[in-house]
Amino acid sequence: MSEKSDSKKQYIIEKATAVFSAKGFKSVTMKDIVEACDISRGGLYLYYSSTEEIFRDVCEKADNSEESEKELSQMVESAKASDLLLWFIKEQKKAILSKTDPLIAARYEYAFYKKQGGDSSEAKAGFDTAVKVLKSIIIRGCESGEFECEDPSHAAASMMYAIEGMKVCSATFGMTEKKVDSELLFIVQRFMEVE
Amino acid sequence: MSEKSDSKKQYIIEKATAVFSAKGFKSVTMKDIVEACDISRGGLYLYYSSTEEIFRDVCEKADNSEESEKELSQMVESAKASDLLLWFIKEQKKAILSKTDPLIAARYEYAFYKKQGGDSSEAKAGFDTAVKVLKSIIIRGCESGEFECEDPSHAAASMMYAIEGMKVCSATFGMTEKKVDSELLFIVQRFMEVE
Amino acid sequence: MSEKSDSKKQYIIEKATAVFSAKGFKSVTMKDIVEACDISRGGLYLYYSSTEEIFRDVCEKADNSEESEKELSQMVESAKASDLLLWFIKEQKKAILSKTDPLIAARYEYAFYKKQGGDSSEAKAGFDTAVKVLKSIIIRGCESGEFECEDPSHAAASMMYAIEGMKVCSATFGMTEKKVDSELLFIVQRFMEVE
Amino acid sequence: MSEKSDSKKQYIIEKATAVFSAKGFKSVTMKDIVEACDISRGGLYLYYSSTEEIFRDVCEKADNSEESEKELSQMVESAKASDLLLWFIKEQKKAILSKTDPLIAARYEYAFYKKQGGDSSEAKAGFDTAVKVLKSIIIRGCESGEFECEDPSHAAASMMYAIEGMKVCSATFGMTEKKVDSELLFIVQRFMEVE
DNA sequence: AATGAATGAGCCTTCATTCAT
DNA sequence: TATGAATGAAGGCTCATTCAT
């Protein structure tokens, strides 16, 4: 199963990504996927048995190709903290503007759907990871004297909440790039002194 | 029609609120409402013809009983800015913790649903109002010398983004009251000097 | 009941006539009538308990005010047969063009509906009456030497079939007045010699 | 899809024909068809999505097996006009008596339904075709000296109106075969001299 | 592995009809 | 008489899911 079926799964994921990006999470039916993939109804069931299952893989793949954290873990060893921060902020900006992630709306829908059902570990994990990364950047910057920040832990969390808020606002009623830039700059200045 | 049917509508809203709180927005069917209200299928259609229509009234009622902004507009005339800020933060805290608003998840779902459909004015309006209120509190505090803040407009927006982020996080994977308190305090301190 | 309720019935008939003219027979619901009459649902049921019942009265009233046959029976005593024929043809022309009878489509629909249900006496009665009238006109004309016609009985029937055909055609896909005139003239000439 | 589903469509058409013959057009529901076909609700929707769509195919099939016009176009090349006329009249007689076409009532109902909706091209097309065919037969007969007729165009139209009238009368309140024979004979004699 | 026809449950919506007032 | 809220049956439609091939 593994080799062949894996490439087929990749194909399905690819087509499904477009569907979830366009329709969100709950509105997507197995029929939508079947049609997007130009595959048979029964065929799809050989690989996936619910839209949720498909969505998970869609997100997973998207997360990986949004190489962000992986890439970071390499940079983090070598680079200057200010470069890292710049990079992190740019990544977040892209995410806010959905340039990287057209799935954002679907992700939130899914998060709420799971909350309803009691499970929410995935959403939490994503957020916590981002906070950790940001915190480690700040700490690094403080150590190297690039930044000054009394409470990196708190600062990282607060910044991420604000960023999260912008993501939601952008996903629900839209934000201009200019506005996002201005907000991000303002926030960074508030939470740390950049030398 | 108006008196009697209005009380019936109130009854439906009341029962429906529980349904939306428990199941979010999209999963709720007319049948769910019918059953919660213990009325006939046709009976419900006498008052409402879609879950969306019901949801709007549910939210409207919830907004009014979350007397927040209304109440504020009275206080704002007389009170000290620091009291107003305290009050505002407390309201937001309640909202974040869903103590006031168990509809929060449904509201977000609805916002995404409308975004899908192209309309998003309602969500935007809610956010903008909150920013305006906060901004006016900050300005007042600056004038009275209670606060110090260079850029009230920006500060208000940033604080609301962070609060919005907390709302989402709380709605998707939960936040403890302690955590919320700590975050709110930190944020306020970052964005203004409280004398 | 009789006096008061009669005037109310007349009112209902009047309003219902417009509804049947516009929507045919089967598409009309009790709700349509209720709305057209601006009366309560229960109120209508006090007088009528089905659209069919209403439709019967609607037709009956229409038949009476289309004074045709009644009026004729007076004329028939005195007038010249050629005048009567002229009058008869004019009446039919009006009927074909639905100038007199916007109910025509509804009537046919009803006729087919009843046929389905096995009853058809009403439709037959209407047609037979017309044939009789036409036949008596022809006979009268033959006696007075105005017309010449070997088989008045057959001629009357045939002419009425053609007229009936025109009614249906007019009701289903429309006919111009010019076309109707031309056809009626042609038919009369074929079935009798007008001196 | 084409082969298998076509045979299934044929099956549905066959069963549906009986339903439309028995119940007319408007009274027929998808459920009726589903039950007549002994298939599932969803199954029917695989092939047809409205009773109208089914009815169109029902009529089309009926029209083809009433080989009439097709057959005629072959005969018309070779046969004597008087034979053609005889054939045409016989076909009409069958139609009037609904021996060929138990769908007649449903067809009229459909015609009125479409008129209500503004479309009536189908009904008109059917009638016009019949007129053309009859006219060409008459012209042929005149050319060969079999018939004598001053105005074939008018005569054809008038005859068809009469025939149409008989169809309606037969469909609504019935006509005996004898009566139909007698009327048809009379009409033919009136509109042309048969040598 | 893959197909796609078939199923049946489930939701939506509209009406005729009743009944307490 | 008259009202109109309420009911529930009936029909429409869509999907997830299965299964013979």
Description:
Four copies of one chain form a homotetramer. The mean pLDDT of chain A is 88. Chain A has two domains: 2-60, Homeodomain-like (Arc Repressor Mutant, subunit A); 66-194, Tetracycline Repressor, domain 2 (Orthogonal Bundle), CATH 1.10.357. In chain A, 78% of the residues lie in helices and 2% in strands. The first copy, chain A, is elongated. The first copy, chain A, has helices at residues 2-23, 30-37, 41-47, 51-65, 68-78, 81-96, 104-117, 121-143, 152-173, 177-191; strands at 147-148, 193-194. Chain A is built from ten helices and two strands. Chains in contact: A-B, C-D. Chain A binds chain B through residues 23-24, 26-27, 105, 108-109, 111-116, 120-121, 123-124, 127, 151, 154-155, 157-158, 160-169, 171-174, 182-183, 186-187, 190-191, and chain B through 22-24, 26-27, 105, 108-109, 111-116, 120-121, 123-124, 127, 151, 154, 157-158, 160-169, 171-174, 182-183, 186-187, 190-191. The structure holds a DNA duplex (21 and 21 nucleotides).
Key attributes of the depicted protein:
two-stranded antiparallel ribbon, Arc Repressor Mutant, subunit A, elongated, 195 residues, Tetracycline Repressor, domain 2, homotetramer, mainly alpha, DNA-binding
SSE diagram, text form:
4 copies of one chain form a homotetramer.
Chain A: H1 2-23, H2 30-37, H3 41-47, H4 51-65, H5 68-78, H6 81-96, H7 104-117, H8 121-143, E1 147-148, H9 152-173, H10 177-191, E2 193-194
Antiparallel strand pairs in A: 1-2
Chain A binds a DNA duplex (21 and 21 nucleotides) through residues 1, 4-5, 8, 29-31, 39-43, 45-46, 49-50.
